[in-house]
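Encode chain A's predicted structure.
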Amino acid sequence: MNCEVCQLKELELEHFEIREVLRCILHTIVFHRALGLVRPKDVDLELFDVTYVQCGEAEVESKIDDKIEQFICWVEKHPNKKSQICLSFYEVKNKQASWFSNKVERLYWEQWYINVNVAQHLKAHSSKGHHSKVVDPGEGALEDRNARSTALEASLREVLFQIIKFVNEKKDHVPPIPNLEGAISFPHEITIPRFCVWDGHDQENAPDRASNNAKLIVRVCREAGNMTLKNATY
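Encoded structure for chain A:
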């Protein structure tokens, strides 16, 4: 199956902007891959003069919010790193079961890569997240912040237009509508950066891809000069 990939323009964010920006982008993509059984809901951003549309489904909102919170936790632990969030659409296919795999597999037909660079040096906000305000002393600092916010708003609009352009131009790879009762969009998953441990060293951006196959975190431990592999499924 042909899998189309869209690399969205990189956005440079401050920590308190992550939630709103990612909600806007992820909901926009999911809405444009909705199956028609949706109650569109307009959402106005608080930080920018931008409006986007949600599917109006609580389960979708919860799934997106959960992944955003996980991503924010990752950013806090790994500051000053560029990162990606991947939204993947897939088909579920039955296959012959074997001793090492299930009889269901996912065939990915579209992937969206959201590229962000979180600037930690301006992180001076309260725990209330995107409702908080950042205060910088000096008129020059305020002008710089306003200019940066205006530039980010323009870049976010570019990303939204990029999404719409991709959806309108790339259609041949979209599979038939699945026969899933109550589904409001094609099956999809959201992947955020993760770390696994190999021989005592962090391996960056290990995939957090949900699948029916058990995933392994491989830890290499040296005990009395012997190497032991410990497999942990989750």
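The first strand starts at residue 4 and ends at 7.
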